[in-house]
What we know:
This protein is α/β, with parallel strands linked by helices. The protein has one domain (8-211): P-loop containing nucleotide triphosphate hydrolases (Rossmann fold). It contains eight helices and five strands, in the order βαβααβααβααβα. Strands 2-3-1-4-5 form a five-stranded parallel β-sheet, sandwiched between helices. Helix 3 (67-91) packs parallel to helix 5 and helix 4 packs across helix 7. The model has no long low-confidence stretch (mean pLDDT 96).
Amino acid sequence: MLKLRRSFLISFEGIEGSGKTTQAKMLYDFLKSTGLPCYLSREPGGTEIGERIREILLNPKYKGMHPKTELLLYLASRCQHTYERILPLFHSKDKGIFITDRFSDSSFAYQGVGRGLPLKPLSRLNKWASFGIKPDLTILVDIPLEEGKRRKKGAPDRLEKEKEEFHKRVRQGYFKLAKRAKKRIKVFDGKKDKETLHKEIREKVLEFLAKKGVKI
Length: 216
């Protein structure tokens, strides 16, 4: 197994149906095949506590949930996820690459721009909940709302049942983030077939790692 001098956090972001979950798993499988120590997780979730919070957040019967309650539940899951899964890796002598399906940018896009919560306190709370850790690289898989909706299967969860205007704001929130953090956030066309998209993401990740001194 290849040795790393430091750990890296790579996050995947995107609206519902973007295919980010599939791409996160494909990148994980590829990096593992190269001999790199690699870990895959998700938010909300990633821990026993986080998965219980996820059940509440996505349950359609809680349609009366206040936006602040929603934000605080996401942050609670993120705090436990970071504390239990990410921090130990970053503090360990055995370094690795941690891939997470959603992280702090989701709160900006969904609860900040999507729900209209004030961004400054949201940012402070987000930083506090994630112990100040930020992704080293973020893969934003973008897709038109109509295509994302078409791809979804099964009964919609609480967020998927939101009105189209909400999801439009979320997508715009991601665009704002990508414009603000061009070096960290890389945008990919989610309409492409999954193998082509995976190849493009893989090449960008390898380019990023090479710049950090990780040669595969």
